[in-house]
Amino acid sequence: MGSRWIRTGAAVAATLLCAAAAVLSAWVDARVAEPPASTIGGVYSLVYAATGALLVHLRPRNAIGWLFVLTGLLQALSVGGGAYGGYGVDVADPVWPLAGWAALVGSMLWLPSLVLPATVLVALYPSGELPARWWRWPVGAVSVGLAVLTVVSSLTQSAYDDTASGPAPVDLPRSWWIPVAVSAGGAVLGGAVTIWVATVVRLVRARPPERQQLAWLVCVVLPLMLAVFVLPDSVEWLILPLGLMVPGAVVVGVVRYRLLGIMVSRALVYAALTAAVVVLYLAGAALVAAALGRTLSPVTGAVAAALLAVALNPARTWLQSAADRFVYGSRRDPVTAVTELGDRVADADEAELLPAVLDTVTTALRVPAAQVLPPGEPADRAGAVAVPLRVGGRDVGALRVAERHPGEPFTAGDLRLLAALAPQVAVVVRALELTGSLERERDRVLAATHAERDRIRRDLHDGVGPSLAGIGLGVQAVQAHLREPVDPRTGGLLTRLRDEVDDAVGEVRRILDGLRPGSLDDAGLVAAVGRHADALAPSVPVRVIAGELPPLPPEVETAAYRIAQEALTNVVRHSGARSAEVGLRTRDGRLEVAVADDGAGFATGDDPGCTGVGLESMRARARAVGGDLTVTTGPDGTRVVAGLPLEASR
Predict the structure, then answer these.
(1) Number of Cβ atoms within 10 Å of the Cβ of 226
(2) Which among 410, 399, 425, 273 has a CA at the least distance from the CA of 344?
(3) For the chain, percent helix, then strand, then coil, each to nearest 5?
């Protein structure tokens, strides 16, 4: 804690030095017709140093705060040195001590104070550390080149003439300092271009919120560089507002995206916004006074500020509301929060429903985390707040939100907003709970159905079927044993008995054939057809081509599978094909099952029942669900196409 306050004290001392430089420059500007100092530069240095001091206090080890302090100090030394040196050499009588040296030192320090925020700050932002080790080279080139360029260009008569008259205390020969300055300027330019190009790449690749933070900074740094190095001197007044937007962008990053993990209080945001308004007012008033050739009087300024405060009271109210919304979210507008929650519930997918609801809660309350606890789980945790979730008199859990940061209790407004959101969250939790229960019950019923169906199939196949077949064989044996002329009545009874047994065996086979294949339930239509095709691959390679299919009624799905299965069986048994293809797709609101082969085909006049092709069986399956079946055949192969409805026939 001690070292933190020492660092904060150093940053505050630098800020006070900047304030003194700003006051000195304003004092000189009011007394000199063509002042060497710049009040605008004084305001610039003060804002940067104050922003840096704030960041240093909140995060002493982060480099961004110290870079802001350094930028403010460099600008303050430039402004203060120019004011002291210019006035002390040209106006004061006698000449002030060391005035010439002060003018010399301050002549070029404005350069790094403008370039550092556009280069080194961009490289360090938003984490305060370089993104990778290789970034040290361009940052080092800019830092060293800028230091050398500032020093050698300051030790010249031309730089001194911009601040004070007379011979400079030090004047380096042009043949010496120009090559050094050109080399240093090249290093600065090369490093700056590298940093900006790499920053654009970072901006493209970055993920939120880092992308938004970088975008804020880039959008204010680029206009600042254009105003400083490209635009003519007539628009020099643009430098101050553009320069002030750089710390403004960092403040936005802190407030909106919690940069550096800083939690900003409402009072701090309100104070910063108020200070921004005051600074803008003073800067505007000073510019107007300078344009009219007058000096801004403190009394006049105070009266004008009071009148302006009254006139801008609606703006103050808006600023306060904006500060509340930035820091506390929707605690004062629960209706908006509930509406946003409803919108998220309406738009989110089922799998993302609960995360979307919790995200809305954390955003509305400006808390780092929220979670739903199952019923019976302890909700107490230090600093956290939990509210019960109930629907229809049933306890469905608890909604727990974490504390914003240690030591900040939840207010009555927070608790009211949480109470307004809890019923909406409870409905979502209960709906998801019912959905999960329904899915589990459906799976259980399907599993039981599959097991019962398999049992019936086994009983018919291994029990009733063989028993009937055995009875039929026994009847045949009796008939063979009674070849000698027997009683006609007995012979007729045996024949009738054998026919009855054959019919019963056929009925068992029909029942087995009509049971829904288990592979359809296990893997679906496309995969089941694919499995059957793989089983036939040793005889005929079969390719399965399937489009996106909608959910199908069970009877349609079974018919499609049986038709494809029957058609492929015919291909293997009768076509002599070298390959076959199965197509499954929707066309004109119907499911199309197409089986084609490159076999020899068959005569169209043949009776399918006699040829063993089984076309009537496939047609019967198609008609049973309201569909149809067409067959085309020739020397190049056969194509069987079944058109089945996507909805079950009633």
Answers:
(1) 13
(2) 425
(3) 70, 10, 25
Band (323; pLDDT cuts 50, 70, 90)? low
Torsion of CA 185, 191, 193, 194, to 10 degrees: 160
Give helix then strand counts, H and E, for the chain: 24, 8
CA atoms within 13 A on the CB side of 253: 29
Sign of the C-alpha dihedral computed for residues 480, 481, 487 and 492 taken in this order? negative
pTM confidence score = 0.45
Alpha helices in 261-374 (DSSP H): 266-291, 298-311, 313-328, 334-347, 353-365
Q: What is the pLDDT of residues 283-293, one digit of tens each?
A: 566 556 656 65
Number of CB atoms found within 10 A of residue 563's CB: 23
| Average pLDDT of the segment spanning 610-615 | 57
Eight-class DSSP state of 459: I
Which residues have CB under 8 Å from 403's CB, separation 6+? 367, 383, 384, 385, 409, 410
Sign of CA dihedral 275, 277, 283, 286: negative
Amino acid identity, residue 24? L
Residue where the block lists tokens 């199965």? 582
pLDDT tier at 639, thresholds 50, 70, 90: very high
- What band does 471 get if pLDDT is binned at 50, 70 and 90? confident
Pairwise CA distance, residues 627 & 629, whole Å: 7
Q: What's the order of all strands across the beta sheet hosting 542-546?
A: 542-546, 580-587, 590-597, 637-645, 628-634
**Cα–Cα distance, 185 to 11 (Å, whole number):** 30
SS3 labels along 537-585: CCCCCEEEEECCCCCCCHHHHHHHHHHHHHHHHHHHHHHCCCCEEEEEE
